[in-house]
Amino acid sequence: MLALVERIPPGRVMSYGGIADYLADRSGRASARLVGTIMARHGGGVPWHRVVNSAGRLPPGHESEARARLRAEGAPLRGAGVDMRSADWLPPD
């Protein structure tokens, strides 16, 4: 899962559910909550700020830092989060 997060390009994002759905094709399981738990415990070494909820809300408790990082990458921000219509990313494979 962390390898997938590392592949998200600068300025783009994936939702917890999007990551779970993508990985379900390989593992047979889809759990956005599990993705969130893994990110909270082990996501410090990957671009964690590129993982948001399905509405584009930024990681809880880290909104200011995530917003600053995404802004620096040129991500399309909207309100309190990211414009998912413009920023949502899916791996090409």
- Report the portion of residues in β strands: 5-15%
| Main sheet properties | 2 strands, parallel
Shape, per Cα inertia axes: globular
Number of domains: 1
Average of pLDDT: 94
Overall radius of gyration: 12 Å
Per CATH, the class reads Mainly Alpha
H-E order: HEHHEHEEH
CATH arch. level architecture? Orthogonal Bundle
CATH topology name, in short, is Arc Repressor Mutant, subunit A
| Percent of residues in helices | 40-55%
**What is the strand tally?**
4
Note poorly predicted spans.
none
- Cα separation of the termini: 15 Å
Counting DSSP H or I runs of 4 or more residues, the number of helices is 5
CATH homology superfamily name: Winged helix-like DNA-binding domain superfamily/Winged helix DNA-binding domain
Going by helix content, strand content and strand pairing, the class is mainly alpha
Strand order of the largest sheet: 1-2
Organism: Plantactinospora endophytica
InterPro entries: ATL_DNA_repair (IPR052520), MethylDNA_cys_MeTrfase_DNA-bd (IPR014048), MethylDNA_cys_MeTrfase_DNAb (IPR036217), WH-like_DNA-bd_sf (IPR036388)
Region (Disordered): 58-93
Biased composition (Basic and acidic residues): 60-72
Summarize the topology:
Layout lengths: L1 H6 L6 E2 H12 L4 H11 L8 E2 L10 H11 L3 E2 L2 E2 L1 H4 L6
Parallel strand pairs: 1-2
Antiparallel strand pairs: 3-4
